[in-house]
Amino acid sequence: MKKNPKVMTKTKQDLIDAFWTLYCEKRIEKITVKEITQKAGYNRSTFYEYFIDIYDVLEQIETSIIPNVNELPPIAMLEGNLGMPLDIFMELYEKNHKYYSVLLGDNGDAAFASKLKNSIKPMLQEALKYQVKISEKELDFILEYILSAMIGIMSYWFKQDKVISNEKLISLINEIMENGVMSILSK
């Protein structure tokens, strides 16, 4: 007998939500399948219809919120300068804030930031490879720096309850990227 797809989707989401509630409270090593299924109201066998183990739940969540190249905006090249679509990255972060704030936080998944950067970096490398006069290796380091900074500052912004506006944050990031930190500090 075939199962109803809507029921299956709801069941899987219930298990994910139960896992996520626990993951927000404690480290993944401390979470058990029994806790997840009790919280979601299902039995262990139901859990194993959807997931291999608790790490698979986390992996599926991460995979669902990491953008692929087709979901990312094209990079604007203006007068030879890189126009980073910060507002689009901000929207992406905002859309997935429930997960990003935890995964990129102090008790999150240390590998998640790398997964996120590695999903975005190829698009940036492709857009820039004919525009810059540095080696691919140097470009890789620069992009790692930029993406690390963007992820870090957005995480901090959310942690600080968005004490400055989106527009102000985007302006600040752009100014730092275009003019450097010291030029801002010396104003």
From TrEMBL:
<dbReference type="Pfam" id="PF14278">
    <property type="entry name" value="TetR_C_8"/>
</dbReference>
<feature type="transmembrane region" description="Helical">
    <location>
        <begin position="139"/>
        <end position="158"/>
    </location>
</feature>
<keyword id="KW-0812">Transmembrane</keyword>
<dbReference type="InterPro" id="IPR009057">
    <property type="entry name" value="Homeodomain-like_sf"/>
</dbReference>
<dbReference type="InterPro" id="IPR039532">
    <property type="entry name" value="TetR_C_Firmicutes"/>
</dbReference>
<feature type="DNA-binding region" description="H-T-H motif">
    <location>
        <begin position="32"/>
        <end position="51"/>
    </location>
</feature>
<keyword id="KW-0472">Membrane</keyword>
<keyword id="KW-1133">Transmembrane helix</keyword>
<dbReference type="GO" id="GO:0003677">
    <property type="term" value="F:DNA binding"/>
</dbReference>
<feature type="domain" description="HTH tetR-type">
    <location>
        <begin position="9"/>
        <end position="69"/>
    </location>
</feature>
<keyword id="KW-0238">DNA-binding</keyword>
<dbReference type="InterPro" id="IPR050624">
    <property type="entry name" value="HTH-type_Tx_Regulator"/>
</dbReference>
<dbReference type="InterPro" id="IPR001647">
    <property type="entry name" value="HTH_TetR"/>
</dbReference>
<protein>
    <submittedName>
        <fullName>Transcriptional regulator, TetR family</fullName>
    </submittedName>
</protein>
